[in-house]
Amino acid sequence: MKKRCVAIVLSAGQGKRMGTSIQKQYIELCGKPIICYCLEAFEKSEIIDDVIMVAGAGQEDYVTEEIVNKYHFGKVRAVIPGGKERYDSVWNGLKAIRDGMAGEEAKEGYVYIHDGARPFVDEQIIKRGYACVKANRACVAGVPSKDTVKIVDENQFAVNTPVRKYVWIVQTPQVFETALIRHAYFKLMENEENETGITDDAMVVERMENCAVKLVEGSYENIKITTPEDLILAESLIKKMKLKNLKKVLTIMYHYDIIYLVADTQQQLNKCGEVSKWS
Question: Between helices 201-209 and 178-190, what is the axis angle to 10°?
């Protein structure tokens, strides 16, 4: 039996590297805000049941009206304020699940933690995450590094070169048993010293629960929009996806036209047979 799955979508980041007056997740990309793309993926997903959105403090009404209501995202159960750091925002989202904002079943299900600035999460990534978390309790989407990675010292001299086949680039969603990630974050937030060096949710589970986290295949297209150059790439990806979808539609139309033509021809031949039979 499938367990209830909640997506916590983080949209409280400031996006300073984008260099715009508007936060990056609300920048319009090919006709709609960036954050709408991942929300659409979760809205259509067979796996995701509920969505908790974590917005910048004071932006809850804006997100509710201009994103959730305007674009009809029915799975969004709550829009809550984020915190100073990313882990503060995640903790607020986990507390919302704990407090029943996604229903009682969600407390013992699975949680997908996703950056709102990653618009290209898709159903295949979501399904692979579900299969992996059922088997391993904790998993994160990622892709093998295409480049050689160097570990450097404080003066930028290379001190180590990891074997490339063991190096993965980590993405979101990051998926966990809800109880596991909630307990890990509870321990993290108990002591500020625990927060040092935390950059993603997997680290919280690794450090606080001593739990191994499995890497599951994401996508090289599952980019995070951080700089203006990323916007150009994102626009290109969207155009590519639209062209791919158009080709599928045209192929289906062509296929059905052939079927119609064959059926119509057979019907005409049958009529010819009937005429010759009685002539």
Answer: 80
Average pLDDT over residues 80-101: 95
Taking alpha carbons only, the member of 144, 104, 120, 143 closest to residue 222 is 120
Q: Which tens digit of pLDDT belongs to each residue from 145-182? A: 999 999 999 999 999 999 999 999 999 999 999 999 99
**Residue 71 CA: distances (Å) to CA of 21, 32, 65, 68:** 23, 9, 9, 6
Sheet holding 5-11, edge to edge: 76-81, 50-55, 5-11, 110-115, 168-177, 138-144, 214-217
Within the chain, where are the H helices? 34-44, 60-63, 86-98, 123-136, 178-190, 201-209, 228-278
pLDDT single digits (tens) 239-272: 888 877 766 666 666 565 555 554 554 555 454 5
Q: Give mean pLDDT, residues 198-214.
A: 96
- Beta carbons of 48 and 7 less than 8 angstroms apart: yes
Paired strand residues for 18: none
Q: How far apart are CA 89 and CA 80, in angstroms?
A: 9
Is the N-terminal amide bond of 173 cis, ω within 30° of 0? yes
Q: What secondary structure does DSSP assign to 207-245, as a single string?
A: HHH----EEEE--TT-----SHHHHHHHHHHHHHHHHHH
What is the model's pTM? 0.86
Q: Using 50, 70 and 90 to split pLDDT, how confident is the model at 192?
A: confident
CB environment 172-191: b (16+ within 10 A), e (fewer): bbbbbbbebbbebbeebbee
CA atoms within 13 A on the CB side of 113: 28
Structure tokens at 212: 């191994």
Q: Distance (Å, rounded) from C-alpha 254 to C-alpha 264?
A: 15
From its phi and psi, is residue 19 left (phi > 0), alpha (psi between -120 and 50) or beta?
left
